Structure formats: C-alpha cells, structure tokens
Amino acid sequence: MKEHNEPESPDLAHEDFDALDERARVGWYYFIAGLTQKEIAERLDITRLKVNRVIGQMRSDGLVKIELDMPLISCRRLAEQVADAYGLKDVVVVPDVENYLLQKRLIGEAAGTMVTPLIKGHDLGIGIGSGRTLSFVVRGLSARPSEGSWVVGLIGGITRATGSNSFDVATKMAQKLGVECHYLTAPIFCASAAARDALLLIDELTDVLARTEIADVALVSCGSVDEASSLTQVRVIKDHLVDIIAAGAVGEILGCYIDAEGRPVDHFINETIIALPPDKLKLKPCPILVSGGMRKFAAIRAILRGGYVNRLATNEEVARALLERR
Fold it and tell me: What is the pTM of this model?
C-alpha cells in the first residue's frame, strides 16, 4: 500500500488494511460480540476454517487479554457502535492520520474492501459519484462482478480534469472491474431549472439517468459548504453560496444541498442538478457513503440522519463525533 514519499500510518505499516480489518472483525465478533465461528464465517463470507485459524493465531500471538490488543480493534469497536446508532448495515472506520491525502486514500481503499464481497461474481450495475476519496476505492477492490455488469457515473461533470471528476472516477472503476462504463455527459449544475429540462430532452442523457436509478450498488461522497469544497469552485455555486447557506445547507450529496436533518434546502440550485436524486439513492440495496474529515462532519451526519445510505466508510475522529453529537 505504501507509495514513494508518502507517509504511512504506523498501525498499517506491515499489513494491508483489508487483512487487518478482517482479523479485527473476527476478533470483535468472537471475543466481544459472542458470535459462533459459524455465524462469523457466514457474516464475513469466509470459511469456518479461516475463522478458526484467525482466532487461534490471535491467541498464540498474545492478542487476547481482557480486551483485544491489536491494530484497528478500536476502529472496529467504533464501526459497530456507529452502525448500531444510525441503523446501518455495515461501517468501516480507518485510523486518523495527519496527512490529508493519505486519510482520503485509507478511507477509499477501505470502502473498496467493503464493496468487494457485494460485487464478487454478481451481475449488477455499480454507480459512483465524484471526489478524491472515491478515486481511491478501486485500490481496495480485490474481485470483479460478472461480465454483464456495468459502471455508471451518478453525477454530471465539471469543466476541468482533476482526477476526481465524475468521468475520471467512473472510468477508473470500470477499467479496474473490466466492464463497460456510462457517463452523464452534462454539467453538474445548469443555469436554471428550464436549462436542465432542455438538456433532459436528449435521449442519450435520460437513458444514462435511468441507468443511475437501476444501479444496485452506489458509492457516493459528500461536500461541505465552505469555500475549500470542490463544488464551491463551480461558478454558479460560488455566486450563490451565501444564499445556499442562508437556506440552511450544511453540505451536499450528489450536488443536492441539504440541511442538518438531511432535507434538501429550498433553493433553486437544487432544481438544476444533473445527477441521481438523493431520494432515489436511499431506495438502492447498497448505497455507500465514502467520506471523512471533520470539515465534512455536518454533511456526513445529515446524510445519515436523512437515511440516504446504509453503509459508511470514514475515519476515527468522524466516527467518534457521530456518536457524541447525534
């Protein structure tokens, strides 16, 4: 996982995140949650023999004391608590690191680990949004869906190549999985609702929008309402940011600005978006929020309150705040 000149978390220096996380999950479920080896094997989609081997290794390594003394066990505990508090099906929490880009990479790779068993060998559609964190998801994938599967971008694009544009992120995902890719070849925001309606007269665009709705798995990130957020650099958002905040917005998901309870704010910008509507996101079997950092905490909490996703990948500090400031 380590790249040239990139700092690495000490806890992750000697073993891949997915292997550590699997061991932590086994340890948590067996020694703390009290599940049987059979139940753990079924939950994690691994063999009972592997569960037995991991438990035996923990004992022989001296990791089992009054509490599990191993990397990521505190993250596993936080993940279980956040899942229970917000009614989520799965949560993965990565350690906090000081390097901003490395933090995004760890969260993205952890999300890839989470997604792998959901897509392995299945015939399905995979939707993905935009953002730096989502661009790292492909690095955590270790399995492919069936040949008939496809990837679709869930949101329109911006006018510059950043490596985290929706087109770039969807392309990376499709190439990694070896499947076809479909793009929303339109801007994220139009000048008005009428301009959006005019674009939606294009059959090819509406066909892709329809595909965003039937995708089984959806990976999305979110944005804050501060000036450092990537979407606030889009001209129409920059011009109206003060009004958007005044309307009660604490963040955005798929370009839709929402309040602290996850409700779309009453502002014309929400009528101009070319993207999967958030209310359609919550209807999917596997909608996953991949985001971290306290700058995005208000948006992450609002998305969870609004029930838009049932899975989350984030970092320790955000997970603790989600529990303390529900």
Answer: 0.82
